[in-house]
Structure formats: structure tokens, C-alpha cells
Amino acid sequence: MAMGRPSHSHGSGEERLPLRGGLETERPPPAAHHGGEQLLKDARRGGRLWRASVRAGLVLCLLTVPAVLLLLRWQADSSPQWVFDFEAPEEDDDQDMQDDVSDDLSPAPHIEYDRLLGGLLIEGFDEKSCRSRYQFARYHNSPSTPSPYLIERLRKQEVLQKKCGPGTKAYKEASKQLRSGQSLNTTDCNYLLLTIHAGLGNRMLEITSAFLYSLLTNRILLVDRYKEIGDLFCEPFPGTSWLVPSDFPLNYGEFTHSSPESYGNMLQSKAAGGNTDRSLAGTTPRYVYLHLDGNYGFHDKLFYCEDDQQFLQGVPWLIMRTDMYFVPSLFLIPAFQDELGRLFPEKDTVFHHLGRYLFHPTNNIWYSVTKYYRSYLAKAEKRVGIQIRIYETKGILQRNGPFQHILNQILSCAQNKKLLPEIGMAAGATAETQNKGGAAETQNNRTVAVLTTSLSSWYSDQIQKMYDEHQTVDGTTVKMYQPSHEEYQRSKNKKHNMKALAEIYLLSMNDELITSGFSTFGYAAQGLAGLKPWIMFRSENHLVPDPPCGRAMSIEPCFHQAPYYDCKAKRDTDLGKVVPYVRHCEDVSWGLKIVNQTQL
């Protein structure tokens, strides 16, 4: 509930004047000609008593207000809100099999888990204000350990963010010079401001890309405060904020592909000169807008060339707009390759490590994630996540079905890859009657919990109906769960995004993943989980692809709109064949992704 704005009214508006004692009261009347001196003494004595009572009241108020605030904070901490639309499930008296505590919101120091994620995180944050930061490890076993050098660089970045972040002297000075139009003095504080405009999956990928670029170029990362980032994620850096202040001097939301401040347009408009047409002439600009969105042009893409990076290194403020995971192209810039190799010896763990470092869902979201997990998923012997994204279109809205060929593709993938059990031919058949050899098969008590995320509930309902009506060949019980079905994407709706983030984290807590090709929602889940998913390929002409799905080469997301320009040779080339660890994506043939390979 939003708190009301405090009133600034001080009463009826009658003029009150301060006495020399410092507190205000009404002006005493002038002394009368009979007994005036005595009246004046009485007035002063009354004023002293009044002032004493005011002081006592102020002391009592000062003692009471902090207690009230602490009580309100305790009440807020103890009553997180459920983000899904159905009624929250009742608490289970049994303990959670995953973390062996009945109440995930209570401290559990006796539970052994890597709460600092191998050193990615540090101690010292307030746990109650952001419970997910140190609790995510309870529901997640990482297959990879961050390198000591990455941990070292993260600590240095935290120092830089705190030294130069919002509210600091360095930030105020840099902001002041940016506002005044003066040339900026050389400082240790250069900035990257990321504007946010895409859906939740894209947001997570673009923030991770921008943060890695900040690490490589020693910049302070600031993100757009107006896109509910603060409602979705806790602050990642200690002692400072990554949200750009509301009084930032540039109206960065109005920058577009055609803005003259964009780097591509600066190169095209003969603000470029010197020996090559890609080196800006004259003084270094105060800021440059980097348009790296899906509709960017050739000159915008020169951002990924080493010569252009050398120029941009000297620009104090970079304003970036992107909706993509451009990390693979950073691995192709020679000046960054050695540093990236030290940061990520396992090259395909960039999003896995940086995503877990940066993203910590706020308490309402985390409460919903853990409560849902404990209620429906925790006690299953196997957990399978199925992320369904439909790309059929009708008008301007994406249709979500029902499409029988999509259902057939999901089942074909899940059963062929042994993620879900096969069923008997006859409805209601038992495991014993299906044994053609005559010997009764042992009925097992194994349960597979399937978490489905989709804008439509039809697919989950149909799969559950099939398993309800047919016995599985091995007696396994299949239970389908789907937290929400929004029907269509509403990326500008805060509640929608909170549910979407909760579902991304729920997907990341599964043992196996099936994802839809081209979907950034699935990329984020697989990256947090550290799992290579089974990717369902896009169908054509309403036919199930053959094969219906394939194993991902790595846990990394795909860069959908990667450039194909060889900066050194100055010609187009196949950048998926330049180095062994950058390949074309399984689901987007023209895209690029990082793999952990050493040979072409």
C-alpha cells in the first residue's frame, strides 16, 4: 500500500513569531498602564512552562517514532505478498526436502549451502530486505565455480561503483558538467547508462551484457530507474545504487536510431574525420548514445570494432539502448580477449556467473517462488521445466493456441529424451497388464513434477489429462503445474513482470529444462540454472520439426542480431567461424553464442 505524502501544513495560518528562546509562540500583548509589569512576568512564566512541555513532547516523539518505524518494517518483512493470481497454498507441516527447513523465511544457519555462490557475493547485505540474495543457493547447485580473477574484478567494480555512484562527490561533479555543457575534466569515473525498454528476459540479458562491458572498460553501470527495475531486483552493489537518479540532466528516453548523438550518426554525418572515416575529429564529446537495438545499422555496429572501442574509451558518458545479449561479439574484439579469458576460463559461463551476481528478486517475488516450490515441486523425485513460447501471429498480437502440433512437439521431445515417461496404449491400463511377458511389473511410487510456463494453460492441461487417463509404462506419476497463464505478454505491466520473474526462477530450480527456441525468457532460466536445455525448434507450416528438439551446445544465451562485419578485413564474413568458442546458435542460424570449445 502506498504511503500518503506527509502534510506540510502547520495549522490555521495565523502568524507566529519566534521568541529568543528559539521556539515559536504567539506574540505577547504590550504591557498595560496598570499592572503591566506583573502581566508581563506571568506571560513569561507561562511561556517557560509551555516551552518545557513542548520539549518533553518532542523528546517523547523522538523516542517513539523509531520504534513505530521499526514495527512497520518488521510487519513489512513478516508479511510478503503473493504475486500469482490464485490463492496462495496452505503451508505444509512437513519440512522441505530441498533445504530441510519448514519456513524458508526464517534464518537457518545450520543448513550447509554455498550462500555466497563460490565467492560471487560478499557478506554484509541486510538479509531481511533482500532474502533471495543469500537463499538462492538453497535451491540451486551450480555446475561451475567462478574464477578467482572474476571474483577479484567484481570486488574492484564494487569499490568503483561506490566511489563514483549516485550521491557521491564524483557523480555530482560529472553530472554538473554534463548539465552545463562544459568539457569534462579527466577523472577516474566514467559511466555507462543503460536504458530499459524490452520484455523481462531481454532486460536480464541486456543488463548482463552492459555490466560485462562496464567491467571490461572500467565504467560505472547505471540503469534506467523508470522501468520497475527496483520493484523486480534488489540492489546488486554494496553501499550504493545502480539506479540513475531522477534528476539526471539528459532526457535519455528520447534518444532513437535517428538521434544525432548516436555513434552511428556521428560517424555518418562527418562529425568524423582524421585519417579514417571512423575516427571522430576534434574534442572528445561529453557523451555518446549507443544504439544497439535490433534495428541498428551498419555504422552503429562499428561499436564492435577495436578502433572504435579505443575512441569510446575516452568518452565520459555512454548512453546505451539495446535489447540483446551482445556478449559473443565482445569475445571477438581482440583488445578484450585476454581479459575475458582470465575472467571466464570456462567461456560459456558468462551469464551463469554474472546473472547470479546481479539479479536478486525482491522479497514479494522470492516469497512466491519459494512458497510455490515448497508446495508443489520440492518433494518430487524429478523436476522438469517446460518453457513454451508460441510464435504464431495474428494481426499485431501473438497467438498462443491451442495448436495441436505444438503439443505434439512438446510430448515428442519430452518422451523421446526420457524426460517424461511413456504411456500405455489403452486408457486406464495398469503397469501389470501392459507387461506382455506375463510377469507383473513393480509399481513404483516415483513422481515427476513438471513446471510449465506459458501464456496459455491449454498445453499443460492437455498433458495432465493424458497422464490422468493413461497409466505410464513404469508406474511413474506425472503432475503438471503452471503458476500463471497471462494469455498475452504485457511487458509494461509491473505485476505481469513480477510473475514472469518468479517463473524464470522457478524454471531455474528444475533438474531438466525444455525451452522454446528464440526465447530470451528461456535463455535467462537456463543461464541461472547452469543447465543445457533441450531446445524446441520453431515449426513451419504447423508441422512438428524432425527432430522436435536438440540439446544446446552451451548454457549461454544467443545473440540474435549479431553483426557479420570483419573489422580488420573491412568486409562481411562468417563470424561464427573465426574463433572456436563463438559459434552459430542452434535456434537462430544467423545468431552467435559462446561455447566452451577450443577447436574450430
TrEMBL record:
* Record region (Disordered): 1-38
Enumerate composition-biased segments (Basic and acidic residues).
Answer: 11-27
The cellular component terms of Gene Ontology attached to this UniProt record, alphabetical and capped at eight, are:
Golgi cisterna membrane
Does the keyword field hold Transport? Answer: no
Spans through the membrane: 54-74
GO biological process terms, alphabetically, are: cell wall biogenesis; cell wall organization; xyloglucan biosynthetic process
What's this protein's function?
Answer: May be involved in cell wall biosynthesis.
Protein name according to UniProt: Fucosyltransferase
User: What organism is listed for this UniProt entry?
Assistant: Digitaria exilis
